[in-house]
Design goal:
The chain is α+β, with helices and mostly antiparallel strands and 377 residues long. The protein has 13 helices and 9 strands. Mean pLDDT is 81; it is low at 1-23.
């Protein structure tokens, strides 16, 4: 089973390879949230309003609502039912309208991770829906997306068999990563209790915070755990990412004994930890969209700063600094691979679309090794 999972990580699916559909045309448009459109108004929009693209990508953080128009033409009388899905699981509201070429409504679905009791047409944590071309020469699909999270609109088309296999292996992969992270947390919690070392306790806190962040970011939390609490889910990414910055600074502070080896740098660590704590407390009083953009930029700066700190302490030959630096570098690689895959710069497969999970898992293992070296020293 695990061998098959590892093989499938490197298998990509795209619209031309999975399902051969002639006349596949993808376009998008966006509209100000102060002037929301209905499906009727969108159908009457000028053709100049649409931007034709070969592949949808990541359009960053935007308060605008995005409309996607996809035209599909049947290739043969026996064209099967296939599954179309967006690869990003955390989009707030998604309205899907499937029309015939004459404009007749064939089906409508309302998805999104802030909606109560959503009816999923396909069992998938990601927004997915079936397209039945059996009785139609062509269909036009309109997808409206509005979200405070990144507008990652990349779609893929899979046969029913490919979709089932993909979902199955995504579940296996997620279970493996979450299981490994929790095992590392429990193992080091035992060491923390026996050694009374603050670095171990903070490590456990960081791993648990990272697991909660992944559950929110990958849609697993809303799909499996808190599906009846969309309001909680709406804020989970923001709070989990903001909270994660605190142990991210506390851990190297104690692991590398920054206060002793680089006293001047210790003041920066303390200031940033206080600032992160205050920001976490201030989130309820800040607009969610603004807070989310800030925490993303702030997290990027934090990762680079901590990596540079690791390099500096490695040069000074501080114990465990090299392993710590390698751990952060693995996380950065994972965070870089994910957007490259979304933009189509590199091949999109199970490995690249879950690069953040792989990078975080490798980082967690390496940081545990850094703690082991701390005991040995």
């Amino acid at each position: 089973m695990w061998l098959r999972l590892l093989i499938l990580m490197f298998v990509s699916f795209d619209a031309s390879a999975a399902i051969r559909v002639e006349g596949l045309q993808v376009e998008y448009a966006y509209q100000s949230p102060t002037q929301p459109l209905t499906i009727g108004l969108v159908q009457r929009e000028s053709e100049d309003s649409w931007t034709k693209v070969s592949q949808l990508a990541n359009y960053g953080f935007s308060e605008d609502e995005y409309w996607v128009r996809i035209k599909l033409t049947k290739t043969a009388p026996d064209t099967p039912v296939f599954i179309m899905r967006l690869i990003h699981p955390v989009l707030d509201t998604i309205d899907i309208h499937m029309l015939s070429a004459s404009g007749e409504n064939l089906n409508t679905w309302y998805l999104g991770d802030i909606r109560q009791n959503i009816q999923r047409p396909v069992q998938d944590k990601k927004p997915a829906f079936p397209v039945d071309m059996a009785g139609h020469q062509s269909v036009i699909i309109y997808i409206r997306v509005s979200s405070i999270n990144a507008m990652l609109l990349t779609t893929e088309i899979l046969s029913e068999g490919e979709h089932d296999l993909t979902v199955q292996n995504e579940v296996l992969l997620s279970g493996f990563i979450y299981g490994m992270l929790l095992v590392m947390a429990l193992y080091n919690l035992g060491l923390a209790i026996s050694t009374k070392d603050k670095a171990y306790y903070i490590y456990v806190l960081a791993v648990v915070a990272y697991v909660f962040f992944l559950l929110s970011l990958n849609g697993d939390g809303y799909y499996y755990l808190w599906f009846n609490h969309p309001d909680f889910n709406h804020h989970s990414i923001l709070y989990s990412s903001a909270f994660l910055t605190i142990p991210a600074y506390l851990f190297p502070y104690y692991l590398l004994n920054v206060q002793k080896h680089v006293p001047k740098l210790a003041y920066i660590f303390k200031a940033v930890i206080i600032f992160s704590s205050l920001f976490l407390l201030a989130i309820p009083y800040i607009d969610n969209f603004t807070a989310l953009k800030f925490i993303n930029a702030y997290s990027l700066v934090a990762i680079i700063f901590l990596l540079m700190t690791g390099f500096h302490l490695s040069i000074k030959k501080i114990p465990s600094a090299r392993i710590y630096t390698l751990a952060w570098f693995s996380l950065i690689v994972g965070l870089v691979v994910l957007p490259l895959s979304a933009f189509g710069i590199i091949e999109s497969n199970m490995l690249t679309t879950n690069a953040n999970m792989f990078g975080g898992a490798i980082e967690t293992v390496l940081l545990s090794l850094a703690l082991a070296q701390r005991i040995r020293n």
